[in-house]
Specification:
It is built from 18 helices and 17 strands. It is of the alpha/beta class. It binds 5'-O-[(L-methionyl)-sulphamoyl]adenosine. 5'-O-[(L-methionyl)-sulphamoyl]adenosine (MSP) binds next to helix 1, helix 7 and strand 14.
């Protein structure tokens, strides 16, 4: 069969501020993006996945100043923690970008020059409010009143009155095109987030201050050496840098425009208003989709913060529960797009009920009975109606429902369908009772166990994006070769007979998902 050329797929995460160590919110986004990237690879697409750190701006400069060190020194140290987080969580990016890198400065200056050539930049004076924590300008009308009458940004962060010479970008010129874009179905998801953005544009867009003169930690503005770019101009450009922009590279041709910018709900304005406007000005194609996921909150739905002492370290979480249980929990527990909360009890109970007791136990029971009762040997067998019904139920979940839901980024629903198929297998094993058949009808016992063996292979292939290590472990135990793990192989119904022909035998299994205990230090 002639292979068709794989269609490229470019996915990015937001790049994080390395002003401290990563928390579980950062891990959540990185894991979700990695699941999407792995899913698209398994679907046969040629994927490029980029993540990284956003190292310029006042927030980094101030933090470094507080610690009596240079911003570069702070960025070098903290960026490494984000890199280590990705590696520890099995987040397989193609590029981890740091905005201090030279090619990124070149790309940012190139997009600037294109915006300038389009007549969209002019020099003026900025007078207004700025939130360092959000790295964002706000109109007086957007501010809210905090304790003691203090002015706060809509995200409840402090704002400072700022007056300085600045380059401005003619954002107002793009108002109508942005409205059309925001109203384009599928551009911004979940769709509920679009209303807020549409309202923001409809009330009239003011030109945007895009350079700063009061500090110098950033990308230099071409031809204006005392200006550095507003950190969001360079940050957003990272999505192009990684493809080799401004050069006309193969990656640019293959992967731009991006298929998906995956970001949190707090930075939707930057990605669906500012970024498209910069791209329109630079005459570059617009990303196909921006998805603003929800926030991961602490127990009881509280915001995580250092002062509340409820910040969760993703590496400690992975260490305590295992990387795959953590990945599974995050995607299963939280309906993607909405906020969700984390607690050690929640992950332990979810992982034990679904991974250890249901999926893990199913694999363990099936493989150990094949190893023990049949010396691990596989044979051709005749199925009956119950076997066929189970196999078609599992096939439907793995070949149709899960992939369709994942394509729509509805991970929790996709995994739920998969878990229902696991439950169906457990119900089948209880009903068929192969341990009884062993004494009464060994042919039937074999048919039941081989049916489950086939079901396990579909279940393991389908869930790979979420639990890559554990599914690989199971696929090894099932004798499924590396080259037969893509989703297209789910349609290959002859694999079992081929495996029988190779003489593969099932060994005494090792449990893939041992039960978790609540670690003492996180109890309570
Ligand atoms: N540097 C900017 C993004 C620039 S993208 C060109 C930034 N950095 S951040 O470190 O504050 O956030 C990085 C990502 O993590 C954002 O998408 C943000 O929404 C996400 N999250 C931060 N806290 C989060 C949770 N508690 N839960 C889920 N995601 C959260 O914004």
């Amino acid at each position: 069969m002639a292979e068709s050329k794989p269609t490229p797929y470019y996915i990015t995460t937001a790049i994080s501020y390395p002003n401290g160590r990563p928390h579980i919110g950062h891990a959540y986004e990185a894991i979700a993006a990695d699941v999407i990237a792995r899913f698209q690879r398994l679907r046969g697409r040629k994927v490029r996945f980029q993540t990284g750190t956003d190292e310029h701006g006042l927030k980094m400069a101030r933090k470094a100043h507080e610690q009596s060190r240079t911003p570069r020194d702070l960025a070098d140290e903290m960026s490494n923690y984000f890199l280590a987080m990705c590696d520890a969580l099995n987040v397989k990016y193609d590029r981890f970008i740091r905005t201090v890198e030279e090619d990124h400065h070149r790309a940012s200056q190139a997009i600037w020059e294109r915006m300038q050539a389009a007549g969209d930049l002019y020099l003026d004076r900025y007078e207004g409010w700025y939130s360092i924590r959000d790295e964002a300008y706000y109109d007086e009308s957007e501010l809210i009143e905090g304790e003691g009458g203090a002015k706060l940004s809509p995200h409840q962060t402090p704002v400072e009155w700022t007056v300085e010479e600045s380059w401005f970008f003619r954002l107002s010129k793009y108002q109508d095109r942005l409205l059309d874009l925001l109203k384009t179905p599928g551009f911004l998801e979940p769709a509920s987030r679009a209303n807020e953005m549409i309202a923001f544009v409809e009330q009239g867009l003011r030109d945007l201050s895009v350079s700063r003169t009061s500090f110098d930690w950033g990308v230099k503005v071409p031809g204006s050496d005392n200006h550095v770019m507003y950190v969001w101009v360079d940050a957003l450009t990272n999505y192009l840098t990684g493809l080799g922009f401004p050069a006309d590279t193969e990656d640019m041709r293959n992967f731009w425009p991006a298929d998906l910018h995956l970001i949190g709900k707090d930075i939707v304005r930057f990605h669906t208003i500012y970024w498209p406007a910069f791209l329109m000005s630079a005459d570059l194609p617009l990303p196909k989709k921006v998805y603003g996921h929800g926030f991961l909150l602490a127990r009881g739905g509280e915001k995580m913060s250092k002062s509340a002492g409820n910040v969760v370290d993703p590496l400690a979480m992975a260490e305590a529960f295992g990387v795959d249980a953590m990945r599974y929990f995050l995607l299963r527990e939280v309906a993607f797009g909405q906020d969700g909360s984390y607690s050690p009890e929640a992950i332990v109970s979810r992982a034990n009920a679904e991974l250890a007791n249901s999926f893990g136990n199913l694999a363990q029971r099936t493989l150990s009975m094949i190893a023990k009762n049949m010396d691990g040997e596989l044979e051709a067998f005749e199925t009956n109606e119950a076997d066929d019904a189970l196999l078609s139920n599992v096939a439907d979940a793995c070949r149709n429902v899960l992939p369709t839901e994942f394509e729509n980024l509805a991970f929790s629903t996709g995994i739920e369908a998969w878990m229902r198929a696991v439950y169906a297998c457990n119900q089948y094993i209880d009903e068929q009772a192969p341990w009884t058949l062993k004494k009464t009808n060994s042919e039937r016992m074999k048919a039941v166990l081989y049916t489950l063996f086939m079901a396990l292979r579909d279940l393991a292939i389908a869930i790979q994006p979420v639990v890559p290590e554990k599914s690989a472990d199971l696929l090894n135990q099932l004798g499924v070769s590396q080259s037969e793990r893509a989703y297209s192989h789910l349609l290959d119904t002859q694999w079992y007979l081929r495996l029988v022909d190779t003489g593969f035998t099932v060994s005494k299994p090792t449990p893939i998902f041992p039960r978790l205990e609540l670690p003492e230090e996180v109890e309570g």
